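hey so i finally got around to running the thing on that chain from the lab meeting. sorry it took forever, my laptop kept dying and i had to restart like 3 times. anyway pasting the input first so we r on the same page abt which one it is
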Amino acid sequence: MTDPNPSDVEDIKAADAKELHRAVREEGQAEIDRPTASLLWSGLAGGLAITASLVAEAALVQAVPSSPWSSLIVTLGYPLGFMIVVLGRMQFFTESTITAMLPLATHPSWRTARRTVRLWALVLIANLAGTAIATAGFATLPLIDAPLRDGIVSVSTVILHHDAVATFWTAIPAGFLIAAMAWLLPNARDQSFWLIFVVTYVVGAAGFSHSIVGSAEAFALVWAGRLDLPAAVAGAILPAALGNLVGGAGLFALLAHGQVRPEMPPQGDGLPSNGPGRR
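ok and heres what got predicted. didnt touch it at all, straight out
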Protein backbone atom coordinates (compact mmCIF):
# COMPACT_ATOMS: atom_id res chain seq x y z
CA MET A 1 0.00 0.00 0.00
CA THR A 2 1.50 3.34 -1.04
CA ASP A 3 1.70 6.32 1.25
CA PRO A 4 -0.72 9.12 0.42
CA ASN A 5 0.63 12.09 -1.45
CA PRO A 6 1.19 15.06 0.94
CA SER A 7 -0.97 17.25 -1.28
CA ASP A 8 -3.81 14.71 -1.04
CA VAL A 9 -3.54 14.78 2.75
CA GLU A 10 -3.78 18.57 2.72
CA ASP A 11 -6.86 18.37 0.51
CA ILE A 12 -8.78 16.19 2.98
CA LYS A 13 -7.67 17.96 6.15
CA ALA A 14 -10.19 20.29 7.71
CA ALA A 15 -9.01 23.88 7.89
CA ASP A 16 -8.10 25.06 11.37
CA ALA A 17 -9.55 28.19 12.98
CA LYS A 18 -6.85 30.48 11.56
CA GLU A 19 -7.41 29.18 8.02
CA LEU A 20 -11.17 29.57 8.38
CA HIS A 21 -10.66 33.10 9.69
CA ARG A 22 -8.50 33.93 6.69
CA ALA A 23 -10.94 32.45 4.15
CA VAL A 24 -14.00 34.17 5.61
CA ARG A 25 -12.12 37.44 6.11
CA GLU A 26 -10.89 37.48 2.51
CA GLU A 27 -14.45 36.94 1.34
CA GLY A 28 -15.63 39.78 3.55
CA GLN A 29 -12.94 42.12 2.25
CA ALA A 30 -13.92 41.28 -1.32
CA GLU A 31 -17.55 42.09 -0.48
CA ILE A 32 -16.58 45.39 1.17
CA ASP A 33 -14.60 46.36 -1.94
CA ARG A 34 -17.41 45.57 -4.41
CA PRO A 35 -18.95 48.49 -6.33
CA THR A 36 -22.27 49.80 -5.11
CA ALA A 37 -24.12 48.64 -8.23
CA SER A 38 -22.79 45.10 -7.85
CA LEU A 39 -23.88 44.93 -4.22
CA LEU A 40 -27.35 46.25 -5.03
CA TRP A 41 -27.99 43.89 -7.95
CA SER A 42 -26.66 40.87 -6.09
CA GLY A 43 -28.62 41.84 -2.97
CA LEU A 44 -31.78 42.30 -5.03
CA ALA A 45 -31.31 38.84 -6.51
CA GLY A 46 -30.83 37.47 -3.00
CA GLY A 47 -34.05 39.08 -1.81
CA LEU A 48 -35.99 37.69 -4.75
CA ALA A 49 -34.50 34.22 -4.33
CA ILE A 50 -35.10 33.90 -0.59
CA THR A 51 -38.85 34.04 -1.19
CA ALA A 52 -38.51 30.49 -2.52
CA SER A 53 -38.53 29.49 1.15
CA LEU A 54 -41.94 31.10 1.56
CA VAL A 55 -43.32 29.45 -1.58
CA ALA A 56 -42.01 26.02 -0.55
CA GLU A 57 -43.51 26.31 2.93
CA ALA A 58 -46.80 27.51 1.45
CA ALA A 59 -46.95 24.48 -0.85
CA LEU A 60 -46.29 22.14 2.06
CA VAL A 61 -48.80 23.78 4.41
CA GLN A 62 -51.49 23.21 1.77
CA ALA A 63 -50.59 19.52 1.48
CA VAL A 64 -49.87 18.52 5.08
CA PRO A 65 -52.83 17.77 7.38
CA SER A 66 -53.02 19.81 10.56
CA SER A 67 -51.36 18.03 13.49
CA PRO A 68 -48.92 18.76 16.34
CA TRP A 69 -46.01 17.77 14.10
CA SER A 70 -47.13 19.37 10.83
CA SER A 71 -45.00 22.48 11.40
CA LEU A 72 -41.88 20.29 11.35
CA ILE A 73 -42.87 19.03 7.89
CA VAL A 74 -43.80 22.48 6.60
CA THR A 75 -40.44 23.84 7.76
CA LEU A 76 -38.71 21.44 5.37
CA GLY A 77 -39.39 24.12 2.77
CA TYR A 78 -37.62 26.83 4.78
CA PRO A 79 -34.04 26.02 3.65
CA LEU A 80 -34.83 26.22 -0.09
CA GLY A 81 -34.33 29.96 -0.48
CA PHE A 82 -31.14 29.86 1.58
CA MET A 83 -29.69 27.16 -0.66
CA ILE A 84 -30.36 29.24 -3.76
CA VAL A 85 -28.89 32.38 -2.20
CA VAL A 86 -25.82 30.86 -0.55
CA LEU A 87 -24.86 28.35 -3.25
CA GLY A 88 -25.64 31.00 -5.88
CA ARG A 89 -23.20 33.40 -4.18
CA MET A 90 -25.76 36.19 -3.85
CA GLN A 91 -25.33 39.00 -1.34
CA PHE A 92 -27.27 38.25 1.84
CA PHE A 93 -27.51 40.47 4.89
CA THR A 94 -27.26 37.84 7.62
CA GLU A 95 -24.35 36.05 5.97
CA SER A 96 -22.45 39.33 5.62
CA THR A 97 -22.66 40.02 9.36
CA ILE A 98 -19.64 37.77 9.94
CA THR A 99 -17.86 38.05 6.59
CA ALA A 100 -17.71 41.85 6.72
CA MET A 101 -17.05 41.99 10.46
CA LEU A 102 -13.81 40.01 10.39
CA PRO A 103 -11.85 42.54 8.26
CA LEU A 104 -13.00 45.28 10.65
CA ALA A 105 -12.04 43.27 13.74
CA THR A 106 -8.64 42.42 12.23
CA HIS A 107 -7.75 45.93 11.00
CA PRO A 108 -10.03 48.33 12.91
CA SER A 109 -10.26 51.82 11.46
CA TRP A 110 -12.94 54.42 10.81
CA ARG A 111 -12.60 53.87 7.07
CA THR A 112 -13.16 50.12 7.39
CA ALA A 113 -16.05 50.73 9.78
CA ARG A 114 -17.73 53.10 7.31
CA ARG A 115 -17.29 50.66 4.45
CA THR A 116 -18.62 47.79 6.57
CA VAL A 117 -21.74 49.77 7.50
CA ARG A 118 -22.09 50.75 3.83
CA LEU A 119 -22.06 47.07 2.84
CA TRP A 120 -24.63 46.09 5.45
CA ALA A 121 -26.93 49.00 4.55
CA LEU A 122 -26.79 48.40 0.79
CA VAL A 123 -27.30 44.66 1.07
CA LEU A 124 -30.14 45.02 3.59
CA ILE A 125 -31.94 47.58 1.42
CA ALA A 126 -31.48 45.45 -1.70
CA ASN A 127 -32.61 42.26 0.06
CA LEU A 128 -35.73 44.03 1.36
CA ALA A 129 -36.48 45.43 -2.09
CA GLY A 130 -36.24 41.92 -3.49
CA THR A 131 -38.63 40.40 -0.95
CA ALA A 132 -41.07 43.31 -1.39
CA ILE A 133 -41.09 42.95 -5.18
CA ALA A 134 -41.42 39.17 -5.13
CA THR A 135 -44.25 39.08 -2.60
CA ALA A 136 -46.06 41.91 -4.41
CA GLY A 137 -45.85 39.84 -7.58
CA PHE A 138 -47.27 36.81 -5.80
CA ALA A 139 -50.13 38.91 -4.41
CA THR A 140 -51.10 40.84 -7.54
CA LEU A 141 -49.98 38.87 -10.61
CA PRO A 142 -51.09 35.42 -11.79
CA LEU A 143 -47.71 33.94 -10.90
CA ILE A 144 -49.16 31.38 -8.49
CA ASP A 145 -52.54 29.75 -7.90
CA ALA A 146 -54.96 31.09 -5.29
CA PRO A 147 -54.41 28.16 -2.85
CA LEU A 148 -50.66 28.76 -2.89
CA ARG A 149 -51.24 32.49 -2.39
CA ASP A 150 -53.41 31.66 0.63
CA GLY A 151 -50.68 29.33 1.87
CA ILE A 152 -48.13 32.15 1.74
CA VAL A 153 -50.38 34.31 3.90
CA SER A 154 -50.97 31.39 6.26
CA VAL A 155 -47.30 30.63 6.89
CA SER A 156 -46.51 34.35 7.15
CA THR A 157 -48.82 34.90 10.11
CA VAL A 158 -46.14 33.39 12.35
CA ILE A 159 -44.53 36.83 12.62
CA LEU A 160 -47.69 38.15 14.30
CA HIS A 161 -46.95 35.97 17.32
CA HIS A 162 -44.02 38.20 18.37
CA ASP A 163 -43.93 41.87 19.25
CA ALA A 164 -40.90 44.01 18.36
CA VAL A 165 -39.01 43.15 21.55
CA ALA A 166 -39.57 39.41 21.20
CA THR A 167 -38.59 39.60 17.53
CA PHE A 168 -35.30 41.27 18.45
CA TRP A 169 -34.40 38.63 21.02
CA THR A 170 -35.35 35.67 18.84
CA ALA A 171 -33.35 37.19 15.98
CA ILE A 172 -30.11 36.97 17.97
CA PRO A 173 -29.81 33.15 17.84
CA ALA A 174 -30.83 33.25 14.17
CA GLY A 175 -28.00 35.68 13.42
CA PHE A 176 -25.58 33.54 15.41
CA LEU A 177 -26.53 30.35 13.55
CA ILE A 178 -26.38 31.91 10.07
CA ALA A 179 -22.98 33.41 10.91
CA ALA A 180 -21.85 29.98 12.12
CA MET A 181 -22.99 28.54 8.81
CA ALA A 182 -20.94 31.11 6.88
CA TRP A 183 -17.94 30.30 9.09
CA LEU A 184 -18.26 26.56 8.46
CA LEU A 185 -18.85 26.72 4.70
CA PRO A 186 -15.14 26.72 3.71
CA ASN A 187 -14.75 23.40 5.57
CA ALA A 188 -18.02 21.94 4.30
CA ARG A 189 -16.90 21.58 0.68
CA ASP A 190 -19.11 18.91 -0.92
CA GLN A 191 -21.32 18.87 2.18
CA SER A 192 -22.40 22.51 1.80
CA PHE A 193 -25.92 21.44 0.85
CA TRP A 194 -26.42 19.57 4.12
CA LEU A 195 -24.80 22.27 6.23
CA ILE A 196 -27.14 24.92 4.80
CA PHE A 197 -30.14 22.62 5.11
CA VAL A 198 -29.54 21.64 8.74
CA VAL A 199 -28.69 25.11 10.04
CA THR A 200 -31.54 26.90 8.31
CA TYR A 201 -34.02 24.14 9.15
CA VAL A 202 -33.18 24.62 12.83
CA VAL A 203 -33.68 28.39 12.46
CA GLY A 204 -37.11 27.81 10.94
CA ALA A 205 -38.22 24.96 13.20
CA ALA A 206 -37.16 26.82 16.36
CA GLY A 207 -39.13 29.89 15.34
CA PHE A 208 -36.12 32.20 15.36
CA SER A 209 -36.59 35.54 13.59
CA HIS A 210 -34.69 36.03 10.35
CA SER A 211 -34.78 39.56 9.00
CA ILE A 212 -34.95 38.75 5.29
CA VAL A 213 -37.30 35.77 5.42
CA GLY A 214 -39.30 37.71 8.01
CA SER A 215 -39.47 40.68 5.66
CA ALA A 216 -40.95 38.44 2.96
CA GLU A 217 -43.55 37.26 5.46
CA ALA A 218 -44.25 40.82 6.59
CA PHE A 219 -44.64 42.14 3.04
CA ALA A 220 -46.90 39.21 2.16
CA LEU A 221 -49.19 40.22 5.03
CA VAL A 222 -49.03 43.88 3.97
CA TRP A 223 -50.12 43.07 0.40
CA ALA A 224 -52.89 40.83 1.80
CA GLY A 225 -54.19 43.67 4.00
CA ARG A 226 -53.36 41.81 7.22
CA LEU A 227 -50.66 44.23 8.39
CA ASP A 228 -49.88 47.88 7.72
CA LEU A 229 -46.47 48.86 6.37
CA PRO A 230 -45.24 50.93 9.37
CA ALA A 231 -46.06 48.05 11.73
CA ALA A 232 -44.29 45.60 9.42
CA VAL A 233 -41.13 47.70 9.33
CA ALA A 234 -41.04 48.82 12.96
CA GLY A 235 -42.45 45.69 14.54
CA ALA A 236 -40.88 42.92 12.48
CA ILE A 237 -38.22 43.89 9.95
CA LEU A 238 -36.01 46.36 11.84
CA PRO A 239 -36.01 44.46 15.18
CA ALA A 240 -35.08 41.27 13.34
CA ALA A 241 -32.29 43.02 11.41
CA LEU A 242 -30.84 44.45 14.63
CA GLY A 243 -31.08 41.10 16.40
CA ASN A 244 -29.44 39.29 13.49
CA LEU A 245 -26.65 41.87 13.52
CA VAL A 246 -26.09 41.39 17.25
CA GLY A 247 -26.06 37.61 16.92
CA GLY A 248 -23.91 37.50 13.79
CA ALA A 249 -21.48 40.40 14.09
CA GLY A 250 -21.70 41.12 17.80
CA LEU A 251 -21.47 37.58 19.10
CA PHE A 252 -20.30 34.96 16.61
CA ALA A 253 -17.91 37.13 14.58
CA LEU A 254 -16.19 38.52 17.65
CA LEU A 255 -15.96 35.07 19.26
CA ALA A 256 -14.57 33.61 16.04
CA HIS A 257 -12.04 36.45 15.84
CA GLY A 258 -11.19 36.22 19.53
CA GLN A 259 -10.09 32.60 19.31
CA VAL A 260 -7.41 33.38 16.71
CA ARG A 261 -6.47 36.94 17.68
CA PRO A 262 -3.76 35.92 20.21
CA GLU A 263 -2.05 33.86 17.48
CA MET A 264 -2.01 36.67 14.91
CA PRO A 265 0.85 39.16 14.43
CA PRO A 266 0.15 42.75 15.57
CA GLN A 267 -0.93 43.76 12.03
CA GLY A 268 -3.17 40.74 11.41
CA ASP A 269 -1.54 37.86 9.54
CA GLY A 270 0.29 39.88 6.93
CA LEU A 271 -2.33 39.25 4.28
CA PRO A 272 -3.30 42.01 1.91
CA SER A 273 -6.59 43.58 2.91
CA ASN A 274 -8.25 42.98 -0.45
CA GLY A 275 -7.79 39.28 -1.03
CA PRO A 276 -10.18 37.25 -3.14
CA GLY A 277 -13.54 36.22 -1.75
CA ARG A 278 -16.20 33.64 -2.56
CA ARG A 279 -18.29 36.03 -4.54
